[in-house]
C-alpha cells in the first residue's frame, strides 16, 4: 500500500517541544499517512509570523500552534481561514479549563515553562552526572546516583540514561561483559534504584550486527553468535534474580516507554527512604 502525505505546520512561540510531541502522537494513529513537518519555533515577532504565513500559503495543510499572544494567534487563524487550512491552538482547551477552575487569567508568557529555576539546574546536574558515569565509568561513586542501569551490550542503556537525566534523574549505567565482575560499589550501593535491562537474543544480535557493519568490523564473533548472546542474557537474568533487582524487557519498548517504567519504579523506590 502506498503512503499518502500531508503538510503539517507547527508554529510555536517557544521551543515547540510540546507541539511536536502532540502532533506526532496524533499523526502516528493514521496508518499509510505521513506528515511532512514544517516546524517554526520561537515565533515572537510580527515579521517572523508573516514569513510563517507565506510558507503555509505555499504548502497548505494542517496548522497547529502554541502561541499565547492573542494578536499573533488571531492573525495566524485569519490567514489559515483565508487559505482554507484547518488551524488549531493546542493549548487553548487546556488554558480555558485551567481558567474556569482557577478563576484567574493566564499570564501570556511565551516559553514560561523554560525558565532557569531550580528544576532546570537539577536537570543540568543530572545530565553532567549521567555523561560522566556512562558505560561503567567512574564506578566508585554509584551511591550518588538515583538510578543505575545494568545490562548486556545493546540493551539501550546509554540513550535511556540520557533520557532519564533530562527528567532530572541522575543515572549511571554498567555493561555486563562476560568474564568481567561488576564493581563492588554497585553491590554495596544502598541509595540508587538498580534496574536490569534485557532483550530477546534475536533483537540483541540484530542490533549488534548493525553496529559491526557500521564499524566495518568482523562479524564472525561470539558478540553476534545467537547461542552466545542467549547465554549472556540468561546469565544477566540470573544475576538480576539473585540481586533482587527489577527487570525490564526492552525488546519491544521505545526509549520513552522504558524510561516511563523506570520512573514509576523510582518513585516507589524513593518512598522507602521517605518511610524511614
Please, how many helices?
10
Cα-to-Cα separation, first versus last residue: 59 Å
Give the class from helix and strand content and strand pairing. Answer: alpha/beta
Taken from the alpha-carbon principal axes, the silhouette is globular
Report the portion of residues in β strands. 15-25%
Radius of gyration of CA atoms, rounded to a whole number: 24 Å
Question: Roughly how much helix do the residues carry, as a percent range?
Answer: 40-55%
Task: Report the mean per-residue pLDDT as an integer.
Answer: 92
Q: Please mark out the parts with pLDDT under 50 across 5 or more consecutive residues, or reply none.
A: none
Q: In what order do the strands lie side by side in the largest sheet?
A: 2-1-3-4
- Largest sheet entry: 4 strands, parallel
Number of strands: 8
> Which sequence of SSEs, written as H and E, runs from N to C?
EHEHEHEHHEHEHEHHEH
Explain how this protein is built.
The structure is a single chain. With 276 residues, this protein is of the alpha/beta class. The chain has helices at 17-27, 46-58, 70-82, 92-102, 118-132, 157-165, 184-187, 201-215, 226-243, 255-275, and strands spanning 4-12, 33-40, 62-66, 87-89, 147-152, 171-176, 193-198, 247-249. It has a four-stranded parallel β-sheet with strand order 2-1-3-4, sandwiched between helices. Strands 6-5-7-8 form a four-stranded parallel β-sheet, sandwiched between helices. Helix 3 (70-82) links the parallel strand 3 and strand 4. It is globular. The relative contact order is 0.09. The model has no long low-confidence stretch (mean pLDDT 92).
Amino acid at each position: 500500500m502506498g503512503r499518502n502525505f500531508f503538510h503539517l505546520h507547527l508554529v510555536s512561540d517557544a521551543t515547540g517541544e510540546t507541539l511536536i510531541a502532540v502532533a506526532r502522537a496524533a499523526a502516528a494513529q493514521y496508518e499509510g499517512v505521513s506528515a511532512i513537518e514544517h516546524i517554526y519555533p520561537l515565533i515572537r515577532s510580527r515579521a517572523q509570523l508573516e514569513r510563517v504565513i507565506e510558507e503555509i500559503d505555499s504548502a497548505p495543510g494542517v496548522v497547529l500552534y502554541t502561541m499565547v499572544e492573542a494578536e499573533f494567534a488571531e492573525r495566524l487563524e485569519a490567514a489559515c481561514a483565508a487559505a482554507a487550512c484547518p488551524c488549531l491552538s493546542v493549548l487553548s482547551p487546556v488554558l480555558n479549563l485551567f481558567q474556569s477552575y482557577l478563576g484567574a487569567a493566564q499570564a501570556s508568557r511565551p516559553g514560561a515553562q523554560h525558565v532557569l529555576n531550580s528544576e532546570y539546574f537539577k536537570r543540568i546536574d543530572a545530565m553532567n552526572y549521567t555523561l560522566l558515569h556512562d558505560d561503567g565509568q567512574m564506578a566508585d561513586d554509584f551511591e550518588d546516583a538515583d538510578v543505575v542501569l545494568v545490562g548486556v551490550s545493546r540493551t539501550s542503556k546509554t540513550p535511556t540514561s540520557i533520557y532519564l537525566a533530562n527528567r532530572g534523574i541522575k543515572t549511571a549505567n554498567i555493561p555486563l561483559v562476560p568474564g568481567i565482575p561488576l564493581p563492588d560499589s554497585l553491590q554495596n550501593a544502598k541509595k540508587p534504584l538498580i534496574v536490569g535491562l534485557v532483550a530477546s537474543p534475536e533483537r540483541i544480535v540484530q542490533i549488534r550486527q548493525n553496529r559491526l557493519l557500521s564499524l566495518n568490523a568482523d562479524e564472525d564473533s561470539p558478540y553476534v553468535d545467537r547461542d552466545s548472546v542467549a547465554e549472556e542474557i540468561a546469565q544477566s537474568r540470573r544475576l538480576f534474580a539473585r540481586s533482587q533487582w527489577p527487570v525490564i524487557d526492552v525488546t519491544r519498548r521505545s526509549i520513552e516507554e522504558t524510561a516511563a517504567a523506570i520512573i514509576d519504579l523510582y518513585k516507589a523506590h524513593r518512598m522507602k527512604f521517605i518511610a524511614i
